[in-house]
Design a protein that fits this description.
The chain is of the alpha/beta class. It has one domain. It has a three-stranded parallel sheet with strand order 3-4-5, with helices on one face. It has a two-stranded antiparallel sheet with strand order 1-2. Strand 4, helix 2 and strand 5 form a beta-alpha-beta unit. The radius of gyration is 12 Å and the shape is globular. The model has no long low-confidence stretch (mean pLDDT 95).
Length: 93
């Protein structure tokens, strides 16, 4: 695995219809962060829609929820590159 390679994150079975990207240096790599996965599951169950500000966007998992427009802020250079590779407009914290 190349350190700079962005790849799809391994998602828990209950979130397999969603998508997120990851790379070395992103919290949770090669999976998604457990807290982020839990939050995505709850938001999907509650049918959250509209703009969502994520101050720890990592690989953009919340942005793959149906009806969600992700407003991503991230402090990690690795996560910013994963978000950019996914076509998400992220802002550096």
């Amino acid at each position: 695995m190349n350190y700079f390679e962005v790849r799809p994150a391994n998602l828990p079975p209950r979130l397999d219809s969603l998508k997120a990207l990851t790379k070395s240096g992103v919290r949770g790599y090669p999976d998604v962060d457990a807290a982020q996965a839990l939050l995505a599951g709850v938001m999907r169950k509650d049918r959250v829609r509209g703009d969502v500000l994520d101050l720890s966007a990592m690989g953009g998992l919340l942005g793959s929820l149906p009806g969600v427009t992700l407003r991503a802020v991230e402090g990690s250079a690795a996560a910013l590159s994963a978000l950019a590779a996914g076509g998400l407009d992220a802002h550096a914290a």
